[in-house]
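Input record (Table S2, row 313):
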Amino acid sequence: MIEVSALHKRFGSFSAVHDVNFTVERGQVLGFLGPNGAGKSTTMKLITGYYRPTSGRVHVNGLDTHRHTRRMQRELGYLPEGAPAYGDMTVAHYLTFIAHCRGLSRKLSKTRLRAVSEQLELDDVLSQRIETLSKGFKRRVGIAQTLVHDPKVLVLDEPTDGLDPNQKQQVRELIRSLSADKTVILSTHILEEVESVCHRALIIAHGKVLADSTPGALARQSRYCGAVTLELPNARQAAALLNALPEVESVEFSIDNPQRFTVLPAPDAPLFVAIQAKLASKGWAPAAMSVESGRLDDVFQRITRPNAVEVRL
Ligand SMILES: Nc1ncnc2c1ncn2[C@@H]1O[C@H](COP(=O)(O)OP(=O)(O)OP(=O)(O)O)[C@@H](O)[C@H]1O
Ligand SMILES: [Mg+2]
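Output record (magnesium ion complex):
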């Protein structure tokens, strides 16, 4: 549905997007993750036809975004960063205006206004001026605006930024439900959002794609994949003993519980069994013991920090 090949964008001598390549299948939700200034918004602006690429191509549903910009944009809904809107318009007026810009008939505009207003729970604020809305409602109006013409593709730049936890959850559920018949690209700084909503994630830094994988596969690259967290009354003594095992890379103590610590595995080491055997040999029974599937934040930090080590993905 979306094909990005050899995409470059320079601002003067500065390279904001550098040789970005990826595809998104129909019905997929793709997450852009990356530190501030990584090039996420710029890549989105290139996909939506807002910016012209310095070189490279983007196709949306087979249409070149540079050569068939208007036709491509009809298939696409775009929430720019910060959800800008015309503050002095009422919500109903604004969404009707967008429907008009999108070329919808008066009758269809009314039907779609009702539909998106219900989807985003905007019924109570339809006659309120946008500048008087809370941040959460403004964001919902911004998302409603992307859906008015029922596009096949959505590009959402930080759709849950600044929302309270309940509203974040609502918007995530909405995105999940939309992906039944739409292809979605979203950007976020919230790693758990990627895990809960996205089928795939791109980690972008300095304008380059550094990882392209499923959230689960990314998390499995973490040093915490297979790590074992234990709770024992003699935690210090047990941690020192376990740290000496060849299967153990290191041990980290919990900040809030002196009896809890996490044992990180050496590469490809069967840690759980080794720990069980060692504890049994001492007759120590842990109050709790759990194995981790990995931490996306650990992988993100290792890949994107300035002196990042190379992570094979
Ligand atoms: N119009 C422009 N002119 C010059 N530089 C720009 C322009 N737009 C973006 N940049 C630069 O390109 C880089 C990437 O910016 P971009 O907004 O894409 O980052 P981002 O990943 O979306 O960051 P954030 O997480 O903070 O939103 C930044 O260094 C930014 O200053
Ligand atoms: Mg941005």
